[in-house]
Write a structure and sequence with these properties.
Number of helices: 10
Strand content: 15-25%
Helix content: 25-40%
Number of domains: 2
CATH superfamily of the largest domain: DHBP synthase
Oligomer: single chain
Bound molecules: threonylcarbamoyladenylate, magnesium ion
Order of helices and strands: EHEEHEHHEEHEHEEEHEHEEHEH
Length: about 325
């Protein structure tokens, strides 16, 4: 059921539910999360079951503030503190060496843990209510509140449509960032950008004071991160990425027997067929990120079979959006 995330009574009830080992969905500034008490392995197992996600795919642990780092991390390098001071609360997840015995199930058994302090006021209020619940809950393990491999939810209604009415969902409106957090791995010495988001590599490097590497640049086994699987975030319809010119050419070639197609492009395109649904992509990366997943879901609801997307510019601020589009197209 969808609950008002600004209601103190709803927040208290959600905290009680979490303290009892049950699941609650909640809004963050990036996307909605499906939360369980990170310290309760049985509760965390319910997340994997609900999502249909393999149990070795680690979850992010959401914390109220920087003081909670030591509870979950075994080692907090100075660079972690610098990044936290610059970007928390906010859309940044840090991978750190895990503290022995802490959040084992949430971490999928890996020796590291992903930590993030979300900026959304409802998320913050929920974390506060959890800390004073009986028994207290100090971290919320939460993946995006969608079934495995699907597009992340950016509204409470999206979550309800994925999991049905039994799941309590705190409604905090549409997520202002719209794509998942930037993930930086600090467990290997040099910082590694595991998942691009709206915080850019340039912003990170300015604080790190050194280059932030790409996963391909570091040796060693990569942690299986579902957000880094090639095919992920996929809508039902098939997604294809093209430049504007190719898109117009493809539209010109469409015959009457063409399947239902949706177009999402920055360029003003002219489909000849009225069967083609056109949605204009905003000019800025931030505006596009905010609406991207909702737009993909709307296309699915309208029953389109193909989604043709104009590839956004190869510029730093578009890296997160380009990444999600490429993964959606790999599906
Ligand atoms: O913005 C977000 O990050 C959202 C909101 C709810 O906070 N959460 C999210 O969670 O996107 P999820 O589970 O859908 O994606 C988390 C990503 C996965 O790719 C996961 O593998 C990676 O974080 N991750 C978590 N812990 C990790 C770890 N210890 N090592 C490497 N990757 C990790
Ligand atoms: Mg996800």
């Amino acid at each position: 059921m969808i609950l008002d995330g600004t209601s103190p009574a709803a927040l208290q009830e959600a905290a009680r539910t979490l303290a009892a080992g049950e699941l609650v969905a909640f809004p963050t500034e990036t996307v909605y999360g499906l939360a369980a008490d990170a310290g309760n392995d049985a509760a965390v197992a319910r997340i994997f079951a609900a999502k249909g996600r393999p149990a070795d795919h680690p979850l992010i642990v959401h914390v109220a503030d920087e003081s909670q780092l030591d509870r979950f991390a075994g080692e907090v390098p100075p660079m972690a503190h610098r990044l936290v001071q610059a970007f928390w609360p906010g859309p940044l997840t840090l991978i750190l060496k895990r503290r022995d015995g802490a959040a084992a199930a949430a971490a999928g058994g890996h020796p590291t843990v992903g930590l993030r302090c979300p900026a959304h006021p409802v998320a913050h209020a929920l974390l506060e209510a959890c800390a004073s619940a009986q028994p207290p809950v100090h971290g919320l393990a939460a993946p995006s509140a969608n079934r495995f491999g699907r597009v992340s939810p950016t509204t409470a209604q999206h979550v309800a449509s994925e999991f049905g009415d039994a799941l309590p969902v705190l409604d905090g409106g549409a997520c202002p960032v719209g794509i998942e957090s930037t993930i930086v791995d600090l467990s290997r010495g040099a910082p590694v950008l595991l998942r691009p988001g709206m915080l850019t590599r340039e912003q990170l490097e300015a604080v790190c004071g050194e280059r932030v590497l790409s996963p391909e640049e570091v040796a060693g086994p990569a942690t299986r991160a579902s957000g880094t699987l090639e095919s992920h975030y996929a809508p039902q319809a098939r997604v294809r990425l093209m430049d504007a010119q190719m898109l117009q050419t493809a539209l010109d070639l469409l015959g009457d027997e063409a399947p239902r197609i949706a177009v999402y492009a920055r360029a003003p395109l002219r489909p000849r067929s009225s069967r083609v649904l056109v949605r204009r992509m905003p000019g800025s990366a931030a505006d596009t990120a905010r609406q991207l997943f909702a737009v993909l879901r709307e296309f699915d609801e309208q029953g389109v079979q193909l989604i043709w997307v104009e590839m956004p510019p190869d510029a730093p601020d578009w890296a997160g959006v380009r990444d999600r589009l490429k993964r959606a197209a790999a599906g």
